[in-house]
């Protein structure tokens, strides 16, 4: 009897882990597919030759930010809208870096933990979205313009 209980518990544990893995991969698939399509589109339109990173940026319209270099070796960010739409390419040479945006957010606010830093296109142009947890365990967002490093918008104490 003891062996049956051990077998059943082991099987149920294996089944639970398998289901969790399937859910995680299935849940991430739409984002992965969207990123892959955006990278292919940026390369096919010859805006980028080499891709360093890409991620989904959500505001009023979901876009994928693809960061890489063009034929001349210039570092660029290409903003690819989900579905159809015009691509926007912005050179990043001389622009505020992700590290500089994080440092600015840390100096302006008392951040306990930085969650992410993402470059996205807003009405003000390219901005770094810095999400962090403050000392009071509140979620905060600071949007820093990539062109000059000024704070464009803040969302505090969520």
Automatic annotation (TrEMBL):
Residues 37-81 form the Cell wall elongation regulator TseB-like domain. Keywords: Membrane, Transmembrane, Transmembrane helix. Gene3D superfamilies: 3.10.450.40. The keyword Phosphoprotein does not apply. Pfam families: TseB. The keyword Membrane applies. The chain crosses the membrane at residues 6-26. This is DUF5590 domain-containing protein.
């Amino acid at each position: 009897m003891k062996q049956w209980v051990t077998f059943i518990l082991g099987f149920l544990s294996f089944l639970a882990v398998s289901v969790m893995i399937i859910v995680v991969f299935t849940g991430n698939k739409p984002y992965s597919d969207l990123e892959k399509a955006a990278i292919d589109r940026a390369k096919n339109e010859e805006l980028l030759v080499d891709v360093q990173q890409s991620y989904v940026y959500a505001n009023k319209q979901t876009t994928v930010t693809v960061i890489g270099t063009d034929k001349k070796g210039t570092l660029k960010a290409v903003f690819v809208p989900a579905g159809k739409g015009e691509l926007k390419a912005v050179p990043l040479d001389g622009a505020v870096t992700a590290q500089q945006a994080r440092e600015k957010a840390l100096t302006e606010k008392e951040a306990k933990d930085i969650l992410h830093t993402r470059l996205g296109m807003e009405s003000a142009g390219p901005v770094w979205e810095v999400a962090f947890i403050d000392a009071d365990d509140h979620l905060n967002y600071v949007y820093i313009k990539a062109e000059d490093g000024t704070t464009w918008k803040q969302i505090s104490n969520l």
